[in-house]
């Protein structure tokens, strides 16, 4: 029993020694497997502790202390060798070695198992590592993908921003381009306009120069003609004087001879007469009758010559003139005026005339005041021998321009002559001569002449206008020439519906410009009243009524219920009517009254005529608007 115990202890010691050596060898050779080496060293430690415990138990006597070397412990080898020796000497050596071999095998198996376990762990670690690596790679790829996507997004955003910026820049550029183009076109337009204006200014300048030259030519021509005429007149006068002297001398001699003869005859005759009383009486009576006949004939022929001179001397362009009246008609009118003056002085003047300076002319109060003032100024100008002021009347047709011109002439004591611009064009080349004739003729007036040119725009329009003929232009230049200086014998009054068409040189000669508008409601009311009394009142029905259309009236007109309100209503309806239209309306009323057997004018008939005249007026306006003509 003790032997076996001993052998077991020896084997254990040997095994421990061997294993220690092996462990050292392991520990030296395999640093790689740290966990295993640590566990084997622990085991070795445990083994050593177990061996020590077994040795202590088996030996129970203290082993002398071996000096401990630095790296190698010979004690174990010694103990191993001792144990081997004991084993060798033991009969159970074989069994011991078997056990040892089995232990070794089982230990190796353990080590292999541990190794396998470790390998499994290692593989697991590898797998984990690989998985981690893979995950990391995947994360990395994901991150890269994210970064790339972000990058792409960023690039895309950048590209979009760039595109937007480019687009805005392009837009700005386009706007600038358009602006530049606009500016350039404006500049071009301005340049074109400037050029056109320059060309027009040049043309105007050329026209002006041409007109100036023409005027100068006409002036020089006129002066030359005047000089020629003066020279001719001088020569004629000289010749006439010589002839007269010769004739007087001849006559004197003839008369002397005749006187001598006569005296000798007279002497004989006187002697006979003194002796015969009857013959003396007859001779005295015959001489007186002869003297009276001679005087009457001379005065009569002088008056007749003056009249013929006026009639034949009146230029053909003058349509109406106060200078062409028969001398006896002037005497009659003078007598009439005197009679009027007398009756006025006696307090029988018509209210309209005493109050209103212009008989039968209805104007707006302010216009009337101005006209009266002008008439007074013209009269005073004439009295003081100052230069006359020219006038222009403009406004729609039939507003009283001609009437006023005539009245101004009458009031200011001037002669009056009227011509129409439309008559000038048909005269062609004769027009210039005729214009000069008028102004020469105007000089014959002792009182001064108011020359009224109606439709002045027909021949005094802008000289640059294309539809103006050369003859018309010359006529206009002639008028401009004759009115260039302020005149002391002619007042020029132009009337036109289109003042804007007049040549600037013509308007330059005008001192007073007066507008004649269409009558307002108050004026229409007065006009209706005026023409009602002129055409329909029975005053002066003896045939001399100033307003009667027919001098002889066989039946009296009866006016019924035509109150102020009825006339006021008509004045309201006739808005846009001229004075002439209102006069015509009342003439129509008169015709309508004469159309009735009883010659009664009542408010119904009056209203009917007014209504159809208003309709007619609007139709005329419409037609004129369609035709593009002024009414
Ligand atoms: N203000 C007015 N007062 C009274 N009657 C007027 C007035 N205006 C016009 N008339 C009447 O109209 C007629 C024409 O007037 P007048 O010839 O003076 O007009 P006008 O302006 O010269 O016209 P036109 O431009 O056509 O020559 C006159 O005879 C008169 O009957």
From TrEMBL:
PROSITE patterns: AAA. This is AAA-TYPE ATPASE FAMILY PROTEIN. Signal peptide: none annotated. GO terms for cellular component: mitochondrion. Residues 37-47 have a biased composition (Low complexity). SUPFAM superfamilies: P-loop containing nucleoside triphosphate hydrolases (SSF52540). Residues 58-68, 76-85, 180-196 have a biased composition (Basic and acidic residues). Residues 32-89, 180-212 are annotated as: Disordered. PANTHER family: AAA-TYPE ATPASE FAMILY PROTEIN, PUTATIVE ATP-ASE. Residues 137-164 form a coiled coil. Residues 387-520 form the AAA+ ATPase domain. One of its GO terms (biological process) is mitochondrion organization. It comes from the Eukaryota. Keywords: ATP-binding, Coiled coil, Nucleotide-binding.
